[in-house]
Design goal:
The chain is an alpha+beta fold. Helix content is 66%, strand content 7%. The strands form 2 sheets. Strands 5, 6, 7, 8 and 9 form a 5-stranded antiparallel β-sheet that branches.
């Protein structure tokens, strides 16, 4: 059985019919390029934790019954003197004009405030229509004492006011932009010429900023990866022909991948946005191995045709196996029951397959035409580039040093692995869904202010529902809601609670009895009431607000809530109590996702061990690749622990990707080592020649990969930056592990070969 399962013959076929191959590639590229131009970007933050679980269905049910809970736009207005008459008049006009903006359902602000209803149910507005002659200081104090305004719509220092603008859902991002632009226009017109400063935030604006960041990141990843990879090719090969041999397949592969993504009806997310960049660097990395092989043979005096054919035959199988192991690692992510991760795994696996197919066909076809056109003599007479020569020399010396003391190198590797593994095992999960939003954006700044001055933007939504066929006494409903209200109030983190209980308490201050309050609530059409009760669905909503916190802080609070709810559930067996919300659900989902991702990573490792063992007809070879490339995961986890970054689910995704790519290095080493052994070389000479020959390609390939993923470090999305940092750590550590620990491991286990090798003549150059 060959390492490439015969798939490397695609390269030989492409070399035989180069013009036809390129024509077919071009014909396929045109419609896929047109499709690629239509790729959409997902802006739904729920995509991060979307799943088929009961918990997610519960969240969807609550959001259907109370749709305004996730569509609010937050308009924050600040001024050193908010209660200056002119400012108040402008703010009142803003409150009124916002109702007429595109897509606005209703607006809640301090101008919505009313006094508690009297015995007749009459509730006067706190703000008079005409502010002339009004004591603004007294008005200010009234509002600061109002239960639904103070610290909710007006800050304690009365310098910041919050407008909550409920908008109609806008699934399409272009429609949402129209709404956002109109809100900005109305706000700018109302506040022009004043010292009032307004900023907009909320889920709608997060969506816009996420899409903008994704588009910019994708351009950065593709552009930086492509440009720098071309430069590296030029530096090492000193020929534009070799740059074309790597650059053309990379460009074609990206177009194909994006086109297939669009044809599959998939949107780009915060994770799949890195796939085009991943495809770019994978093509360049694979191309480098083939091009180094071609270059070595040309310098040795072979003609272009023979050099290309030999490289495809000898290196192609390793490229096939490398693509398969990477794809297997990525496909393991599809086992995670969260669409963000599973969708990324499938898209990235398809991209990996595309990268291989394009590389193994386009590169040999182009090489056959371009190198043949350039002429044999020019390439044959050229000396190996100084950089390449220096890299080869370093790798050769490195190999000799390792193989002098393989036991010591292996022992050092084991010590590092054990120490790192212990630290990895103690790392704590970390997650905030805001980590998937652009940093330092206007929306983020507004959310931070609201967290600090208005009690928080996150909410635990406690949904209370009774069966539709069971009629509960309205007084009992208020009693149950009141108990739920009190439970949320006592929770750590929760700063304020909004429910019918608060409305009941407020109205009772005006002298209304419970029966009158119930009648008022039944007849009321207030947007505020609609956020608390749905008579059509026999449900009520109790909302506990808190500032943004990490999942490690929120999950214990949610556990405590479930404990506190048990007596309430026991006392009212016919009533359902569901604690949900975007932040609570995503916090729990992040923990579950990390568990699932670790499981998928173990599956990927196991499958790759079996595949490599099967291909090389040696379980030992599979274990070599596993032991060497699990080490970088442990090291990266240890670094995350020591830096306090915590373990986010994107980190585990990065572990899976990094492992899949790192195994490729081991495959190329094992493939060349097996080739040398098949020619009769002893263990030591075979390992030395392998490191000297394959090492430069691995080093340059690793550089290309690091540079390609390096663009993620510049991302506006904190989660993507961390993702890139982890992948880079893995790739760099994996290169060292494969060049140091892997040869030492082979030499130590196959020690008999070392003794035999000592008795034999060393190969030329050893």
């Amino acid at each position: 059985m060959t390492a490439g399962f015969g798939l490397e013959k695609l390269g030989l076929l492409a070399q035989r019919f180069p013009r036809l191959t390129l024509l077919v590639v071009l014909v396929l590229a045109i419609p896929l390029a047109l499709a690629a131009a239509k790729v959409q970007f997902s802006s739904d933050i729920r995509e991060i934790f979307r799943s088929g679980t009961k918990e997610y269905r519960d969240l969807q049910m609550v959001e259907r019954q109370y749709p305004q809970t996730g569509e609010d736009v937050l308009l924050l207005v600040q001024s050193p003197d908010l209660f200056k008459r002119e400012n108040l008049e402008r703010l009142r006009d803003l409150h009124l004009n916002l109702h007429f903006a595109e897509g606005v359902k209703h607006v809640t602000s301090m101008f919505s405030a009313h006094d508690a209803p009297d015995a007749t149910g009459n509730a006067e507005a706190v703000f008079p229509m005409d502010l002339d002659g009004i004591d603004l200081s007294a008005l200010r104090e009234t509002l600061l004492g109002h239960p639904f305004v103070s610290d909710k719509l007006l800050s304690a220092d009365a310098n910041r006011a919050l407008f909550v603008v409920a908008i109609e859902p806008r699934p399409k991002i272009d429609d949402l932009r129209i709404v956002a632009d109109d809100l900005r226009r109305v706000t700018d017109e109302a506040l022009a010429g004043t010292d009032l400063v307004a900023e907009l935030s909320g889920v709608a604006f997060f969506r816009l900023e996420i899409v903008g960041a994704l588009i910019r990141d994708q351009r950065l990843l593709i552009g930086a990866g492509f440009t720098v990879s071309l430069i590296i090719c030029l530096l090492f090969f000193r020929s534009p022909i070799y740059a074309l041999l790597a650059g053309v397949p990379a460009g074609v592969a990206v177009l194909w991948t994006l086109g297939i993504t669009e044809l599959r009806g998939q949107e780009m997310t915060v994770l799949t946005g890195v796939v085009p960049g991943l495809v770019t660097v994978l093509v360049f990395a694979s191309s480098l191995h083939l091009m180094f092989g071609i270059k070595r043979r040309l310098v040795a005096g072979e003609g272009p045709h023979e050099a290309i054919r030999s490289s495809v035959q000898n290196i192609g199988p390793a490229c096939v196996l490398a693509a398969m192991t990477t794809a297997i690692a990525l496909l393991s992510l599809t086992l995670v029951p969260h669409t963000l991760v599973s969708g990324f795994g499938l898209t990235a696996a398809i991209g990996t397959a595309v990268a291989f197919v394009v590389t193994i066909t386009v590169l040999p076809a182009l090489a056959e035409l371009l190198l043949g056109w350039a002429g044999k003599k020019k390439d044959a007479d050229a000396t190996v580039d100084r950089i390449f020569g220096a890299t080869s020399t370093v790798c050769d010396r490195l190999g000799r040093s390792v193989l002098k003391r393989p036991g010591a190198v292996l022992a050092a590797g084991l010590v590092v692995a054990i120490a790192a593994g212990i630290l990895y095992a103690t790392i704590s999960p970390s997650y905030q869904y805001r980590d998937y939003l652009p940093a330092n954006s206007q929306s983020s700044r507004v959310m931070d202010v609201v967290d600090e001055d208005f009690g928080g933007t996150e909410a635990i939504l406690l949904h209370v529902q009774w069966p539709k066929d069971q009629s509960l006494d309205p007084s009992e409903v208020l009693s149950i809601v009141g108990k739920a209200h009190e439970i949320l109030e006592k929770l750590p983190l929760v700063t304020r609670v909004v429910s019918l209980h608060g409305i009941e308490t407020w109205m009772a201050e005006g002298g209304l009895g419970r029966a009158e309050i119930l009648e008022f609530l039944k007849e009321a059409k207030s947007p505020l009431i609609e956020r608390m009760v749905s008579l059509d669905d026999n449900s009520a909503l109790v909302s506990g607000y808190f500032p943004a916190v990490d999942a490690s802080e929120l999950v214990p609070v949610l556990d405590a809530l479930e404990t506190e709810l048990e007596p309430l559930r026991a006392a009212h067996p016919g009533v359902g109590f569901i604690a949900t919300g975007i932040a609570p659900h995503s916090a729990r989902a992040s923990y579950e996702m990390i568990i699932e991702l670790n499981r998928s990573l173990l599956i990927a490792i196991g499958l790759n061990v079996l595949l490599i063992g099967l291909v090389f007809w040696s379980l030992r070879a599979g274990l070599y690749s596993m032991l060497t490339n699990v080490l970088p995961i442990a090291v990266a986890g240890a670094i995350l622990h020591l830096t306090g970054a915590g373990l986010q689910f994107t980190c585990v995704v990065a572990f899976t990707i990094g492992f899949g790519i790192a195994v490729d290095n081991a495959i190329h080493i094992l493939n060349y080592y097996r080739l040398m052994r098949s020619k009769g070389e002893a263990v030591k000479p075979a390992l030395e020649q392998t490191i000297a020959t394959i090492g430069p390609a691995l080093a340059v390939g690793c550089l290309v990969l690091i540079v390609g993923f390096g663009g993620t470090v510049l991302s506006e999305l904190p989660s993507l930056r961390l993702f890139g940092q982890v992948v880079i750590m893995l790739l760099a550590t994996a290169l060292l592990a494969n060049l140091l620990v892997l040869p030492a491991l082979i030499a130590f286990i196959e020690g008999r070969g070392l003794r035999i090798g000592a008795q034999r003549q060393t190969v030329k150059g050893s």
